Amino acid sequence: MEILEILKKYSFVFKKSLGQNFLTDPQLLDAIARDAGVEETDTVVEIGAGAGTLTRALSARAARVVAFDIDESLIPVLRESLSGCDNTEVVFRDVLKCTDEELNEIIGGRFKVVANIPYYITTPLVMRFAESTLPVDSVTVTIQEEVAERLVAEAGTPEYGAISATVALRGDARITRNVPRRMFRPVPNVDSAVVRIDFLRDKFGDTDVNKVADLVRAAFRMRRKTLFNNLVSAGYAKDKARVAIERAGFATDIRGERLSAEDYVKLYGELNSVD
Length: 275
Ligand code: SAM
Description:
There is one protein chain. The chain is α/β, with parallel strands linked by helices. The protein folds into two domains: 3-199, Rossmann fold (3-Layer(aba) Sandwich); 209-273, Helicase, Ruva Protein, domain 3. Helix content is 39%, strand content 18%. The chain is built from twelve helices and nine strands. It has helices at 3-9, 26-35, 53-61, 75-81, 100-107, 122-130, 145-152, 162-170, 209-219, 227-233, 238-247, 261-273, and strands at 22-23, 43-47, 64-68, 88-91, 111-116, 136-144, 171-179, 184-185, 192-199. The radius of gyration is 21 Å and the shape is elongated. Residues 18-23, 47-50, 53-54, 68-71, 94-96, 116-118, 121 line the site of S-adenosylmethionine. S-adenosylmethionine binds at residues 18-23, 47-50, 53-54, 68-71, 94-96, 116-118, 121.
């Protein structure tokens, strides 16, 4: 049975507040699973199973799928739409409220995250996995195009912000495809894009990237302020901030948005070596 018919059969009511816009095109769903690099030995954690359309596509390519959703009214729909997907289980929990220990217990090994999620949980979700010590190889998210552009933005571009630098500290991010709004049911009022982030845990060697991420947050706290002023507001002594910025090779009036993740690693090193 067609997914829209299954939803109708169970009188499913779409909840805008949960970002319930579902993808139905099998070719697109398979393309997203491919974009995520899902292979037959992989465990995939899907966030936001919805009606299970992407879950099915993932199930066909992976060894195992653990799909999360928070809307229990999807239970009868998923029971039907995922029938025959024996390598798939659905967990009705908010993944953002699960601890690493709980997730480890549920997932139990290395995994890839795939998610088509509402815009308001994009940053917390990406950061949840980027910052965790869980054995997660990558996160592939279908999100509002504008947010996708921010995740992959290069330093010095208008889209570049703390989230772009923070993601670049942890790995490599790229847009793998655009998904026009007409591909969703119901049709939302924005277009989407698929972003794949591959985590590279030793991208910056021994550097504590969580500390560099704190520096990035401080540098972007007030976007119209210079990097120097933001560092001083964050508690760095003026002399220390000025010398470190200069030793890292930047003008003292530079703004945080000009610095790449590599530059922040360099600046962090200088801040630590200035007395
Ligand atoms: N994966 C399906 C698809 O591609 O058609 C559904 C995607 S729909 C955009 C997002 C889904 O995420 C909804 O089913 C919603 O209930 C679920 N959701 C929203 N917030 C969530 C959260 N914090 N944890 C898990 N699922 C969530």
